[in-house]
Design a protein that fits this description.
The chain is an alpha/beta fold. Helix content is about 40%, strand content about 20%. The chain has a six-stranded mixed beta sheet with strand order 1-2-3-4-5-6. A hairpin with a 5-residue loop joins strand 1 and strand 2.
């Protein structure tokens, strides 16, 4: 790896906090803030493709009742829900402990990462998808933990409403601005 990469100040602060080692060793960790958004988008696309090829119905960026946002919430053919948490690298995983709060809203929880991700960091009871070249492979299935019927019903309603709203906004691009304006006036 090259040592001429630029690292943003927040990332430096997190790294210094998490690890107590010289900053000149950052390149050995593969830290490259400039490519993280592109990596995240590529992993997310591969994860959604994985879902669709298995008959799951994935919905990206889903707000959950606890105020968190799932990267991908997928409704499976059996009526169960899976959450796929996309991680672009070790720093992304180590600096974000919110994923533990997502388990309350799914029957199965997965991490979606790329080939460069240090998989030993991930908990064993979470499923593992590894993305490469637009595809994702299931390396480990997630431990099942069934949702309570009332929570499943509420989550299904939230999922359906969000999916229908997004579909309506795709068919009428001007609708999005109108809806936002109407919601602000309430």
């Amino acid at each position: 790896m090259t040592r001429d990469r630029k690292v943003c100040q927040p990332c430096l602060a997190i790294i210094r906090l998490l690890w107590n080692f010289p900053v000149n060793e950052l390149a050995d960790l593969g830290v490259d803030c400039a490519t993280a958004p592109q990596r995240t988008a590529a992993i997310c696309r591969a994860a959604m493709r994985f879902c669709l090829l298995r008959g799951w119905s994935p919905l990206p960026e889903v707000p959950l009742p606890n105020g968190r946002r799932a990267d991908v919430l997928a409704l499976r053919p059996d009526g169960s829900f899976a959450i796929l948490e996309v991680k672009s690298g070790a720093l992304d995983f180590l600096s974000d402990g919110k994923w533990q709060e997502y388990r309350e809203y799914c029957d199965r929880f997965y991490f979606a990462v790329d080939l460069d991700f240090p998989q030993a960091l991930l908990p064993e009871d979470a499923g593992l998808l590894v993305a490469a070249e637009g595809e994702a492979a299931l390396l480990r299935d997630a431990t099942a933990h069934a949702l309570a019927p009332a929570r499943r019903r509420a989550l299904l309603q939230r999922y359906a409403m969000l999916a229908a709203q997004r579909l309506a906004m795709l068919s009428d691009p001007g609708l999005h601005a109108s809806v936002r304006a109407a919601l602000r006036s309430e």
